[in-house]
Every structure is written in C-alpha cells, then in structure tokens.
Amino acid sequence: MNESTLTQLKIIVERAVRPVRASFARKRKVREELLAHVSGVFEEELAGLGDERLAVQRTAQRFGQPAELTEQLQAAVPASDAIDRFLSGQPGESTLRAATRLAAWNLALGVIVFAAATFLSGLLTVWPKEAIQFTVFSILLLPAYMFGLTFATEWIRQASYEPARRSRFRAALLTFAWFAITMALFGGV
Question: What count of other Cβ atoms lies within 10 Å of the Cβ of residue 16?
Fold first, then answer.
C-alpha cells in the first residue's frame, strides 16, 4: 500500500470520527481501530480487484455512510468521557481556553478539598479566623497561579520551538521570570 492510498483510507476513517464528541485519547483509539479495520477491508478488495484505486472505492462503499457510523460511534461514548474531554482539552485549543479550563478545575478541586477538610474536622467555627482566611486565599490563589502558569508555559514553548518566534534568550528569560514569581509567591504565602 502506497502513501497516497493510506491517506485516502485515513480520510475515510476521519469523516466518521471527527464529528464525534469524545476525548482526544478516545478518538485516537477509535481512529486506530477503524483504520486497522479499513486497511483489512482494503487488502481484501485489492486481492480480489488488483487495482488500488478501485479497491479504495470499494472499501469506502463497504465502510458505509460516515454520518451513520458517526451516530453509532457517538452512542458508544460513555457519559464519563465528558469529564475526560473537559480535563484533557482538545487539540488546537486556545491558550485562554486551556488556562480557563485548568483554573476552573483547580478552583473546583480546592473547594472540594476545603469542604472535605471542614467536614472531617468538624464545625467550621472550630478553625481560627486566620486559618480560614489563609485557606480561602489559597483556594483562590491556586486557580490564578494555574491560569498564569498556562500562559507562561505557552510563551516559553513559543520562544523555544516556533520558528518565527524562536529565541533561546527569551525562553530563558521567561523561565527565570516565572521561577522568580513562583518563589516570591510561595515565599510570601
């Protein structure tokens, strides 16, 4: 099978998988499984027909309508995958969306941990006022820190790897700046 044929088989699979609302990891697994299946069908058709172009067309016909397969694949996605999709994000996701998602996740996690600690330790009135203030400050600080860290990481990645923005000096400066902010923040807390 040549590269052009493999690309055509991947397109057949992609038309069915891309519209499915699922986590990146689940979609990757489905793509791999469907490509293996489609490749097997292609090999059968090629053995019978002897012409790659006709074998690809016949494989696409046997594969069926992409929209129908998309519905079947969507029905097979468990509801719990929505959590994984939220946590892992999607390819091509903007930095702002990723930062907001991570900050929201950290805020929710902080509130859950605080509620569990409060429940396990008894009444909230038992805690000193300073402890409650520090805890609330920490619950609010962690999402803000993660929001900033997401942007800092993206800027460092761009300075390190993107050809148009590549600057080792800028990457080192950003890394040092974020390290200094982190030390000042945690030193102050």
Answer: 23
CA 144, 146, 149 angle in degrees (round to 5)? Answer: 110
Tokens of 14: 């992609």
Q: Which long-range contacts (CB under 8 A, 24 or more apart) does 73-78 make?
A: 73/16, 73/17, 73/20, 73/22, 73/30, 74/19, 74/20, 74/21, 74/22, 77/20, 77/21, 77/22, 77/26
Share in percent of the chain as helix, strand, coil (round to 5): 85, 0, 15
Per-residue pLDDT of the chain (189 residues; tens, 9 = 90+): 788 888 888 998 999 998 988 888 888 899 999 999 989 888 888 888 888 888 888 888 888 888 888 998 899 888 888 877 777 777 778 888 888 888 888 888 888 888 887 777 765 556 778 877 888 888 888 888 889 988 888 888 888 888 887 888 888 888 898 889 888 887 765
- Residues 114, 120, 122, 127, CA torsion sign: negative
Task: Compute and round to an integer the Cα radius of gyration of the chain.
Answer: 25
CA 60 to chain centre: 30
CA gap 124, 132 in Å, rounded: 8
pTM: 0.57
The answer to whether 39 and 9 are in contact (CB under 8 A) is yes
